[in-house]
Amino acid sequence: MYKFLIFLCLPVLILSQQRKIEGTVVNTQNEKLPLVSVEIYNLQNILIKKITTNESGGFTLEGISEKSVKLIIKDLEYTQFEKDLDLERQEAPLQIVLKKEIQEIQEVVMTKQKPVIKRKIDRLEFNVENSNISSLNAWEILKKTPGITASNDVLAIKGSQSILVTINDKKVMLTGDELKNLLENTQGEEVKSVEVITNPPARYEASGSAVLNIVMKKNKVEGYRGILSSKYVQTQYAKGVAGISQYYKKDKLSLMGSYFLGSGTYYREGTDYVNYVEDKTRWVSTMNRKDRNKSQNTLNFNVEYEIDSLTNVSLNYSGFFSPKSFGTYHVPTLIYNSQNNVESNYITINDHESRSINNSLSFQVERKLNKKSKLTWTNYFAGNNARKYQNVITALNFAGGIPKENNFVTHDKSNVQLYSTQADYQWKNSIWEWESGAKYSFVKTNSQLEFSDNENGQLQYRGDKSNAFDYKEHNFGLYSSLAYNPGKWNFKAGLRAEKTDLEGVVSEPYEVNKNSYWKLFPTLYAQYTTESNHQFGLSYGKRISRPSYSWLNPAKSYYNLFSYFQGDPKLKATIIHNLNFTYSWKEWNLDLYYRKEIYPSMEISYQEPSTNSLIYHFTNIEKGQAYGVSVYKNFQIKPWWSLSVSENLEHNENYFVGIDGILYKNKVWNLSSDVSTSFTLDKSSDWKLEIGHRYNSPSIQGTFRISGSSTTYLVMNKKFFNKKLDASLFFSDIFKTSKEKISTRYANQDNYFLDYRDTQSVSVSLKYNFGNQAVKNAKTIKKTTEQDRL
């Protein structure tokens, strides 16, 4: 009988042991806190279970047999939370708010620490807020971010240069020098974190191999405050920038505005070597480019308003204006014969100027529907207007010929307009999270090249060398993703569908290119965290890299009589497959990755013996693939001394069809290394010193083989006058070792050029804080009737 009674009571006994605790951990700003330690102790103070919160700050503890336990929440940045729980009465999920060690203070007293690395299920977060590198500008911070390499001002993530750059998840319509100028004029004090997203989730547009998202700080200080800043840079020539940032916050309204004015002279050294095997000649051109820009204007404005406790609206404007950049290049070219004697020469004088105007405007509305869901609507407008003019005179002195002079003039105009609108819905609880949304974008570009020369004795317009190019692209996307975070395991999967309709019209020769296609882009993630905080992750993502609009323009942009750049209106979009395995533990971060690219597009060069021309052409190569490993670790050797190590080893392969129709394979093992050490010289004045060294071994790009390069830098910053004045001293490329050699050698192609971008520099920057720098006691916002209904 007793066996029968035990059998009847067994379900009850089992259920009595299956107690569960659920909850979410947030901070006082209601931000979800991932990777926070959650511990359960019995009444004898013995540890029963230990886990960490998931990406959404949630946790679930199951299989607890005790009726009463003690819950302890720990995180280095917050005060430890303790609570005794009666599990027979505890039914509702817990909402735990962690507070800073010093919650109510009358003024900001912050000790700069090392940057914090957080590995989330779909990205790596490099938190630089209040760190010892926040005195740098945003561009320098990017170059120090784990997983990012910078060679001659070209950013790459895991070896790929196909990157979508966003600020607060909004696309930046700038590339190259324009993007660099914008980020150099963005103060590091305003950057909260940098997110490196090698496999972007479905909510991001599918363009680009990876996403680099810069998260800016929100203004949390009541009242008015401002920052006056200036920077002087001495390279071969001088540059400078000065500006003001202003902030105002009162109750529901928050305003931010900044303006920076830059000016200076930019210099770049280069020498081209072209060997023609057909006539056994060698052409050597030396081009030292010096450009003056008297006015670089960067403007930002942001307003946020809380309509009620459920609805927030924000408006952001960003502008970059460069009214005039100008210079005159004197480029001598010597032509050597087979006996290595100069038999001919010519000199090119290139007088040019350019201007650019970039504007972007975004508007966002966020509405909480209930405690678990919200709806976000974002509109984005952007425009890019550029003008380029050049007058090129060439004095020719060829063996056996009469010395003569050639002159041509080009006017290049381009205008790009972009509009997008996106709606996103999000629902989540402590375990599940669902996102879904739709996006529509429209791009319109117009480019015109007017070419005139004196071929007929006087300067005349040449229609056969002029060109007009119009391009339109419609893109419609739908996505949905689902995340499941039961505890130690985290899972996420998403699918994005994009339809693209494009049309390109070329005037000379007249040609219309149309295309329309649907593409599916799946993403998959899995992450496991052990009780001792070892974290393993596996992810896969499919991406697309659409050609830049300027790359589609087939107009020949001449550098001189014998060299020009040309785009390709028939460029194909590149399909990219990314596979990543990650491991993190105690600030060790390791990433094993594989990348496959189908028809990657890039700039290559080829020489044309019949005309002795060197042509730079943007085109598709057959395929590319790479695999490698990245390691990052920050060692805290002493409280005042830390060491940061970032290493990336990659095997890269590019397959291209040469001008002889043969398929070639270009491959290399590439090492990118960044080692830096920082010291706290005086804690009371935040006097910091950092020394670092970056090294890039030889690499490839299509037909190019790029030599290794390195740079050594030193940065020191200190605060004065009760920490209102921040002074920084920065030495870059101390030993002038960043020069590169870019070469092409196969079949009858034999050319290379030496490139140095004037990176050896010393800079001094000053920042003065004025106005209200105090953090007042946080006011408790009374719940409105709308919030009470949630």
What attributes characterize this protein structure?
790 residues, mainly beta, 22-stranded antiparallel beta barrel, six-stranded mixed beta sheet, 4 helices, 46 strands, 4% helix, 65% strand, disordered N terminus, TonB-dependent receptor, membrane
Report on this model:
The chain has 4 helices and 46 strands. The protein has 790 residues and is mainly β. The radius of gyration is 30 Å and the shape is globular. It holds the Pfam family OMP_b-brl_3. This is TonB-dependent receptor. It comes from Chryseobacterium vrystaatense.
Layout of helices and strands:
Blueprint: H1 2-16, E1 19-27, E2 37-41, E3 47-52, E4 58-64, E5 68-74, E6 81-86, E7 94-98, E8 116-119, E9 124-127, H2 138-143, E10 148-151, E11 154-157, E12 163-167, E13 170-171, H3 176-184, E14 191-197, E15 210-216, E16 223-234, E17 238-250, E18 253-276, E19 281-308, E20 311-336, E21 342-368, E22 373-397, E23 404-428, E24 432-453, E25 460-461, E26 467-484, E27 489-507, E28 510-529, E29 535-545, E30 556-560, E31 563-566, E32 574-585, E33 588-598, E34 601-608, E35 613-620, E36 623-638, E37 641-657, E38 663-682, E39 687-696, E40 699-701, E41 704-706, E42 709-720, E43 725-732, E44 740-746, E45 749-756, E46 761-771, H4 785-788
Parallel strand pairs: 1-7, 12-15, 31-35
Antiparallel strand pairs: 1-4, 2-3, 2-5, 5-6, 8-9, 9-14, 10-11, 12-13, 14-15, 16-17, 16-46, 17-18, 18-19, 18-45, 19-20, 20-21, 21-22, 22-23, 23-24, 24-25, 24-26, 26-27, 27-28, 28-29, 29-32, 30-31, 32-33, 33-36, 34-35, 36-37, 37-38, 38-39, 39-42, 40-41, 41-44, 42-43, 43-46, 44-45
Keywords: Cell outer membrane, Membrane, Receptor
Protein name: TonB-dependent receptor
Domain Outer membrane protein beta-barrel: 370-768
